[in-house]
Amino acid sequence: MSYSMQVKILSKNLIKQSLPTPQHLENYRLSFFDQVADVAHLPLVLFYPHCRNNSKNEELKESLSRILTHLYPLAGRFAEDESSILCLDQGVTYIKATVNCKLDDFLQQANKDLGLALPFWPQGIMEVDKTNLFFTPLLVVQVTTFECGGLALAISHAHPAMDGCTTFKIIYEWAKVCKFGTPSKEINFMNFNLGTLFPYKDLTTILEPLVDEGKRKNSKLIARKFVFEEDAISRLREKFDSVGEDLGFKPSPLIHSTGSNNSHLKRSILSFPINLRGKVATFPEIANAFGNLIIEIPIKFEHDDETKMESLHHIVKLIKESVQVIISKCVIATPDEIVSLVIDLYKDSYAGLEWGGDNEVVNFTCSSLCRFPVQKTDFGWGEPSLMHFGSRHSQVFWLYDIECENRIAVQMGLEEKYMDKLACDQDIMDFAKFSAYGYFDDMVSIRFLRRPLQSPPYGELRENCV
């Protein structure tokens, strides 16, 4: 199937707002958090089965046009200096396509090979990189119809414009607009004030240049998914309840997978992106903010911790305490204090010689999408049957709910040498089932560099900390 499946593009055009952007909103200022976001287009694909309302897919363009009236920056383009978005109603790219197979057949194969989802990414997104991202539309949508009438809805967004929380919220609200026919003037679910609270900065005045960029080598990543069944989650909770620890993520196999053949653990950083919306008491208006608003919390694993790494409880405790320290600082912080905290974390963990300058340090990211509304995006066709998250730029783990939130799926992209070790780790095999495997076919950079300050590699934001 992987060789015979063909996606055929039928049309490609621009969708503009149903109402023009007011003149006073034509220059949308980006924020400090937008400034340090990865220079990448990040795709998400949702697969929907055929249903009696599938004719509703013709309403997708109209509802997208209506929701863009509220999300006016998305229809704009980056300004030449990349510090703002010119909102002149240029529109977002909308692609219609077909594929020569049935959705059930595809899903059966995709559960064994994640790579089969890549052809459903919006056309051309794989070619977007730091050389052309700022000339690419901020949002690209592709709707691919299966022979049975099922659909693949792919959305890819420019990370310097918004983070995953924004994207998931937009998809969820777009689905409601499509399903219930909400008029343009009644759509209002985000505010656009981050550029005022966290203004763009001249980073050359507050940061030293990056350390050796030779560390950013090209690596081939392998995509794989494994699932924690309900009984496995219960057993893990019991394991931690017995010692008074909360279970948020089980990173033991991940850390041990960086060991060499003599079992010596490499120094590693596990990054936890934390969504700041709803966590800062000093300015609660950011709860529904459009843009980027996450803070990377680096969890460092040292050689000296090697004996302690045998204890899963020690690892979870380290993660939990590290996250709590940073969140407690953000709760009562001013915008300037939060920016200073981000800069200090970056200098200490990613730009400094001890960690960022050490070619032997291995970087991973764990991002939780659990309890995000994206799993419940119903355009009138029911909830999606399968989701696929895209990132070819770093080693990332995504966690998300499946089937009534009683099972947890983990989609990952790792270098082959780490994936092989992870698949053989008895700890993970005792609790999880591997269900999909595949290659990211292109050779990719571990991270695209944009500014002297660049946030560590990550996928999407994490809503709930450990």
TrEMBL record:
Q: Name one Pfam family in it.
A: Transferase
Give a yes or no for keyword Transferase in this entry: yes
* Gene3D superfamilies the record matches: Chloramphenicol acetyltransferase-like domain
What Gene Ontology terms describe what this protein does at the molecular function level? acyltransferase activity
This protein's record includes keyword Transmembrane helix: no
Give the UniProt keywords, A-Z: Acyltransferase, Transferase
Cross-referenced PANTHER family: ACETYL-COA-BENZYLALCOHOL ACETYLTRANSFERASE-LIKE, F21J9.9
* Homology family: Belongs to the plant acyltransferase family.
Supply the name of the protein.
Anthocyanin acyltransferase
| Organism annotation | Solanum commersonii
